[in-house]
Amino acid sequence: MRDSFLLSDEVLKLQEKERYYIPNEIDLREKSDHDISRYLNEITDSVEVSSDNISDLVVFDKIRSFL
């Protein structure tokens, strides 16, 4: 993932939400505040252990779900 990721490209792609696919997306609209906090804590804990964990697709997709 590291070699192919460009933030500017991802931001542009996000503008076309219908065509932007996130494989492990979390539908946050359906989640309670408690669930959202849990997801944020999982993301934070993972990245806190190692910043390289952002390249993990599940972690990355969770982050993209919040955008």
UniProtKB/TrEMBL annotation:
Protein name per the record: Uncharacterized protein
Organism expressing this protein natively: Rhizopus stolonifer (Rhizopus nigricans)
Taxonomy of the source species: Eukaryota, Fungi, Fungi incertae sedis, Mucoromycota, Mucoromycotina
